Amino acid sequence: MRLSFNDLRFNRVQTVKRHFYGTPSRHDLGTPSALACGAFFPGAPDLLAIEGERILFAAEGEQMHMIARLTWAGEPDAFGWLLPVPRDAQLSLSSEELFQWLEGRFAAQFVVRDAFDEGCDPWLGAFDVGAGGGAFDGGVDGRNGVQILAQEQLGPFASVLITAEQADTLITWLEDNGYHAPDGVADRLQPYLDMGLAVMALRLTAGAGSRDVVPIQVTYTGDVAAIPLRPTGASAVADTHLSVHLLGPSRAVPVEPFQHVVINDRLIDWAGGGSNYADVVASAADEAGGHAFATDFAGPVDGYPFSPLSERQIADMAASTTLGELQAAYFLPDAGADLQRILRAVITPADGADIEQVFDCFECFPDSAVDGDALGEALRTEFNPARETLVRVFSQHPYLTRMTTALSPAELDRDAVFAFNRDLGDVAAQRVATRPVTCPDFSPDYSAPITLPDGSRWGAAVLVREGEARADGSPMPAARRIERTLAAGQPEVITDNSAAIDAADPGAGGAGGAGGEGGQPGGDRDAGPGATGDGGDGCSCDVGGGGRPAGLALLLLGLVAIRRRR
Questions:
Q1: Which residues of the chain, if any, have pLDDT below 50?
Q2: What is the pTM of this model?
Q3: CA dist., res. 99 & res. 81, Å (int)
Q4: What are the backbone angles phi and psi of residue 196, rounded to the nearest 5°?
Q5: Which of 43, 280, 381, 457 could form a disulfide with 1 if both were Cys (CB 3.0 to 4.6 A apart)?
């Protein structure tokens, strides 16, 4: 269901709307320039903080779709999100599963592949490790018989992919490393381990407490992707993380006033699966004056996991009056995050159960009531339209770029504009290092140095960040290169820290590529017109006379449509 900007009706937007349109003395909110700047609405102070934003831009004809997902911390009742947009903008709900897929597939991955010598064959045979491979082919930790396939941090979660012969051994490892496992789960896991499967475990990282709202889609007339970041600083936290995804004809790049950084991957925690990648990017951006993006991925995309439901399937689901009937029409365990959100609103649990109990065991509560009419309406007006748009734009633009950065409130003082550059090559999301492993005395020895993708050796230096500053003490810069990227041609190198990095770590040696871009092709594509940064003047508005008004709790991310000058 699409809503005009003057008819916002979701996630407390009516309240936001009243505050927004009820303060004309502050600004002429009827002008596109004011709408592009963002706005506050009154609320209790210090209850909310913006912690991160994930955005997808995709052009379709003369329109641009921006799909945004905001991560925030605070009380739910204090939340509000207002999107200042051009007058012709249309607003609709989008897909949480989209961002789950983007994060899982295109976020930067740091993999250590262990190269076992022949002396390890008996040990490997005992655990039936095999050759491994794929995105989760991480290092092996032979302690306690546990094989660690991958470790990474995704948003507020820490995750590990592990396997073992015995579930009890696996559970012990999880509990020793801060993960939680319910009593009796080992017996349930064992059959899966016997089939050679692994276990993915997640936990909240220290201090995590963010709440994620439903992503929204804003469609507006325009052909350049830009994010007005200036207003966000008032309620942003230190190192507010921003991930931007752009669908288009080729690789996307930031243009001035933002720069591009290639990270120093010798500061990545390779042994920990790259868990400090966001910190390395934040420090590299700081070295670029606080305004720079790193490229996580750039390349063709083949296939996507979000398809709309058929009208026949929707009709069958909408005819349901009980959960038992709904299960006959749709295999509910297959429901993803988007369908689950809709189901929570249309199911009335039976037998005194709560909704969480129902979702834990659909078959246990077949008599729970289902509002089939509301379900059908939501599927036709919210669920399917979001997927239909995604299918169209991914079909039209099979090339995706993902860039990330981290910005402090003080660094949210200018807007980010992006363009497409046909002259630049792909960037792989997965960066693979290798480590030789010997097995003296029938036990693996992991003490050999890790060889990085550029051929250099990892000296075990790991960048550590506390607040908005580095705390690791290493003299090595976090940015190997700071570049100015344009809509055509190769990047202009502003700072090349390769010599300083090699001098700080003389034993490492190597070719000097880093961050997933070293050794990547420069691109043989013919230069094309591409999008330009023209018109990217951003917006400049003085909310509340240049200071933060008392009692304003939340700044709401906005979007500015920038037309390319003809």
A1: 1-49, 75-84, 127-143, 154-156, 208-212, 231, 233-234, 510-516, 518-566
A2: 0.69
A3: 18
A4: 90, 10
A5: 381
